[in-house]
Design a protein that fits this description.
Length: 199
């Protein structure tokens, strides 16, 4: 389990957990040392994640924290330093993660423990090979298998199906075959830090 120091970090980690594009997550994985703003500085980035085989570094901060001029300048300095090293560096604020998305993610989190049989997941995958369906349509097709709505949500959390999280989770949610070669759009934000005036 990856440690988090705030509800904002918890939300970020929840999205990492639900995003099939993210395959690895590390908490404070390394120490950076560099000369920034006329001083030797040390930085412990909050998280490193692997997205589609490529590493990214993420700082998870509140806008209030970043509005402190000195902290913002140092963070901006680390952004530029990381980019010079060829490291994708993101600063994720609460503005990058919407309350609606967290609500949808938390709905799926309730079904994290698998409550379906592998054979049921196989039947669902077979039904989805022809194309995406709403959960309601899938349940209609699978009526003879006694598949339940909450079981489909458990399959979605456990990546046995891919679910569209751009709308509220309901019987109208679109699900599709979990093709690792055709991943859904990422839900973990990547936000390049800008100047203080842009915030």
């Amino acid at each position: 389990m990856v440690d988090c120091e705030s509800s904002h970090e918890r939300n970020f980690l929840l999205l990492c957990d639900l995003d099939p594009n993210v395959t690895e997550v590390y908490s404070q994985p390394f120490e950076w040392r560099g000369w920034l703003l006329n001083a030797n500085r040390v930085h412990y980035p909050d998280f490193a994640i692997v997205v589609e085989g490529r590493g990214e570094v993420h700082e998870v901060k509140t806008i209030e924290e970043l509005r402190k001029k000195e902290k913002h300048e140092v963070r901006l300095g680390w952004t530029e330093w990381a980019e010079e090293q060829g490291i994708p560096y993101s600063v994720v604020t609460e503005g990058s993660i919407t309350a609606d998305l967290i609500k949808r993610a938390e709905t799926l989190l309730r079904y994290a423990k698998p409550i379906f049989e592998d054979i049921a997941a196989l039947h669902v995958a077979t039904a989805l090979e022809a194309g995406p369906l709403t959960i309601d349509s899938l349940l209609g097709k699978m009526a003879s298998h006694d598949l339940q709505f909450h079981q489909v949500l458990s399959m979605a959390y456990n990546e046995r199906v891919f679910i569209d999280l751009s709308t509220d989770v309901s019987r109208h949610s679109v699900i599709r075959y979990p093709d690792r070669g055709n991943l859904p759009p990422r839900i973990v934000p990547f936000t390049r830090l800008t100047t203080l005036e842009d915030m």
